[in-house]
Amino acid sequence: MMIIFRYIIVGGIVAFVNLCALYFLTEYVGFHYLVSVTFAFIIAVVLSFVLQKFWTFQDHGTDVVHKQASIFFVVAITNFFLNFGLIYFFVEKLHIWYLLSQFLISAGVAFISFVVYRRFIFLKKETKERTLHGKQCNYQGRDLEAMFSAKNYHQWIADGFSPYLSGHVGEVGAGSGNFSSFLLKTKIDSLVSIEPSQEMYPLLVEKFSTNASVMCRQGFLADFYKEYTNHFDAMVYTNVLEHIEDDRQELLYMNQVLKQGGYVCIFVPALSWLYSDFDASVGHYRRYQKEQLKKIVEEAGFEIVKISYFDIVGVIPWLIFSKLFKKQLTASDVSLYDVLVVPLMRVIEAWVPIPVGKNLIVIGRKKT
Fold first, then answer.
1. Residue 133 lies in a domain
2. Domain end: 87, 121, 155, which one?
3. Residue 142 pLDDT > 50, yes or no?
4. Burial class (CB in 10 A: 0-12, 13-18, 19+), 212
5. Comparing 150-159, 194-203, 335-344, which segment has the lowest mean pLDDT?
6. 157-171 residues labelled b (16+ CB within 10 A) or e (exposed)
7. SS3 for 38?
8. The pTM is what?
9. What is the pairing mode between strands 258-269 and 359-366?
10. 62/162 same-domain check
11. How far is CA 41 from CA 15, 74, 105, in A?
12. In degrees rounded to 5, what are phi and psi of residue 201?
């Protein structure tokens, strides 16, 4: 947490110095404002490099400082043009107010910069792998994208589902029970957690072994739907539907196990043009477009209560790292995004309808 705090402080200091230098060079030295912008940018980059290297990342080595400085400057120039291109796209194509666009882009670029600084410029010798119960987890399933350590992100999703959760709830693709824990904090009476993975299921059982309100089942909904006809008040699919080849049939199973007027709560990756090698490697058959998801949910016998994009800023790092550079974000990167970006985006997206996002959230009600 301290490294994030220092990173934010340095960002604020550099932004303030950049504005002061711009004003001083223009108003007192008499430079043309475009010339002032250039010099102010150079001053800001040099100051940022020194503070980020020696204070934020506590990297006091000087043997490769020239190489680090060169890469840092290239990243800064890249960020400048990335910001320029993105703000044009957000304002002209997505029709988002220019100041809000700049705020959203700044949050995304700040996150990307931090990851690049830590992983490629100011390197640390030690690398810690994400583990579960002391064992490395290689599960290529729902939990991988749902993000183990992203508590704020999980809570954001759960709060979006919460108004529609009550009584008996079923969860398909429960993984090791990370998101299940958030569901249990809502006003539900019982939870049936279904998980097909042989690696994840024992962890799910262990997690809820003393909780009488949770029943764990190993398999797919197709294996159990006849047992639960008209049983559930709500069904939850969090980063699961994209793993199912015949998603239309799965939605029909959902309809069958729900009571009349019951709700299905779905959270999936969005935007087909973001589909990457990473998506393929974790078993995603697709990323959904809004109208595509709406259509298949309605065709399965549900009326749409709510459908909206989710996490607009997340599009930027996903596009840069997963799509363009084919890199996977680490658990620590995810934790940073969860602390630095998610709380801000949650407030903004609660008030401002977003035209695009990394994910889609949809609530459907079984027709009576």
1. no
2. 121
3. no
4. exposed
5. 335-344
6. bbebbbebbeebbbb
7. helix
8. 0.81
9. antiparallel
10. no
11. 10, 13, 18
12. -60, -45
